[in-house]
């Protein structure tokens, strides 16, 4: 297979937020193993340092930045680091996100705000920074936003998660229109239930019924982080060069299913 993520430029890093664990870590590994320089932007220092150390030990190009996507100074500093190490950014993957699972009448303003800060403001700040730097450099690039099927279809007790992820869907389309003429493609990914530590914990504590979810999913199972990473790879590559402003589901058919 041809190398991913060409965008007409061989230099520049793939910046992956929330790249220290879960789906983000698998995406980081996918790109690094394909020869891309990766910057892991995560607020969990141990996780970010561990994945970076593992990749460097295997001979890949990687650097960690520890900070929060919802902090404007952190975001600017992360992209400064990409410039210092890898001559800038060529692809941003806005993967960092937090879940929100609570009946609306019990949801505190603080918890609502936390979801807005990470899931929505974080995507705005990182996209704005990547856009500014790509436009200044004159190089083409790409942005991939991790939405969710719950940004496309609704579920009860998830008002903060569904609202922020649907905001990510609309940000994807807005930025795609705004930046198409300067060669920046913006697309989104809408995963269904994916096997990660997060979902395993929810299953273990009885907050997710894996069997019921499998029955509801036309393909009959959870997705894997690798299946999400495959889509990220495709959307970052020249193979998707005529695709922008799209949010692609990787949900085993869940969002198409209006039946059971
Ligand atoms: P995860 O909790 O395993 O990983 C999220 C990572 O983001 C962690 O490393 C965490 O430290 C980091 N992070 C959180 N807040 C941050 C912040 N403010 N600044 C920087 N880093 C931060 O989650 P996951 O399951 O791998 O999910 C990754 C993305 O995929 C999220 O956006 C999530 O909403 C989305 N998603 C996940 C699923 C699923 O089933 N796992 C389904 C649909 C969408």
TrEMBL record:
Belongs to the short-chain dehydrogenases/reductases (SDR) family. It comes from Vreelandella sulfidaeris. This is Short-chain dehydrogenase. It comes from the Bacteria. InterPro entries: NAD(P)-bd_dom_sf, Sc_DH/Rdtase_CS, SDR_fam. GO terms for molecular function: oxidoreductase activity, acting on the CH-OH group of donors, NAD or NADP as acceptor.
